[in-house]
Amino acid sequence: MPTYTAPPFDPELGAALDLVAGIIPPTFTPEMIPLMREMPFDPAFDELVASVGAVHEERTIPGCNGDEIVVSIYRRPGQDTAGPGIYHIHGGGMVIGNRFAGVQSFLPFVASHGAVIVSVEYRLAPEFPDPVPVEDCYAGLVWTAENAAELGIDPTRIIVGGASAGGGLSAGVTLLARDRQGPALRASLLIYPMLDDRNETVSSHQFQGIGVWDRASNFTGWNALLGDRRGTDEVSIYAAPARAEDLSGLPPTFIDVGSAEVFRDECVAYASQIWAAGGTAELHVWPGGFHGFDGLAPQAQVSIAMVDTRNRWLTRMLEA
Questions:
Q1: pTM
Q2: 83 has which bridge partners?
Q3: Residues in domain Alpha/beta hydrolase fold-3 (predicted)?
Q4: Per-residue pLDDT for 133 more than 70?
Q5: What pLDDT band is residue 20 in, cutting at 50, 70 and 90?
Q6: More exposed terminus of the chain, fewer Cβ within 10 Å: N or C?
Q7: Residue 173: predicted pLDDT
Q8: What tens digit of pLDDT does each residue of 177-196 get?
Q9: Is residue 28 scored above 70 in pLDDT?
Q10: 97 to each of 35, 40, 100, 103, 201, how far by Cα in Å?
């Protein structure tokens, strides 16, 4: 069996990992799902929404198979000029999280660009295995595009994006939009996305028992989503976009990832395949970064650089 030596963590990030080691273990097991779903709501969230001059509204819309799902909408009160739309899909390994997780980083664009953010409450595995999560997300995107005028969104400037599982689902939704001739997307923002159920890359072997969201955690998420199909030829490209052989015809795509995390190699491969297909991708691999390091250690220099680079790209897409 090959020996896999992991690249080192950035010194600032390694120190941050030591601080959270007792709170966030490297390995996420199926038994931890119920407890992790009980994470409390951020008490400062409503204040953050108000601080950017946004109002929050909830709608119940049709999801996969017409079942009801909820979306949250953040926009300026009385918005009467169409702005860009940001369709947000939260992370959580396909098994935890909700539509309020991760949307905070996009809220400033309500104030700066008149953006309208729609964040979808897709249903989670294992109770709702594939294709429910990605089809819920796609249904929400279609609803957003069809109701763009009422929401105050310019339908030619809709960006889909999310982090981790949300990044993987964003990639799947982008492929669905292409293949079903659905909403025309301005861009696709994939933040350290979860793309490949096979767990066979070098980086997927390098991180076991260290960092955040290690190899065993990845099995937890994908097994919950795909069951016995995980790793077989029965997995669709919309569930695991790394399996897509044709990445032509996609909107401009941004991918960032840490060099010290499971998802590194599948992210690099995905960007390379977009380039090979003649597409546009911007890829950033941040040295020594573990999974989600910008959220867990936001004051680290590499985190600041990562978020700044991502926001500069998003600004370009919103203003294009």
A1: 0.97
A2: 153
A3: 87-293
A4: yes
A5: confident
A6: N
A7: 98
A8: 999 999 999 999 999 999 99
A9: yes
A10: 11, 11, 8, 12, 26
Torsions phi, psi of 212, nearest 5? -130, 135
The label of the residue with tokens 């992991």 reads 6
pLDDT, residue 41, reads 82
Strands (E), the chain: 55-62, 68-75, 83-89, 116-121, 153-163, 187-191, 253-258, 281-286
Alpha-carbon distance of 198 to 211, in angstroms, equals: 20
Give me the DSSP letters along 77-114: TT--S-EEEEEEE--STTTS--TTSSGGGGTHHHHHH-
**Whole-Å CA distances, 62 to 150, 213, 238, 316:** 17, 32, 19, 32
- Write phi, then psi, for 272 (nearest 5 degrees): -60, -35
- The DSSP secondary-structure symbol of 300 reads S
Amino acid sitting at position 204: S
Q: What is the dihedral of CA 210, 189, 270, 305, to 10 degrees?
A: -50
Let me know: does 106 contact 311? Beta carbons within 8 Å. no
Residue with tokens 């995107």: 141
If you search the block for the tokens 């939260």, which residue do you land on? 90
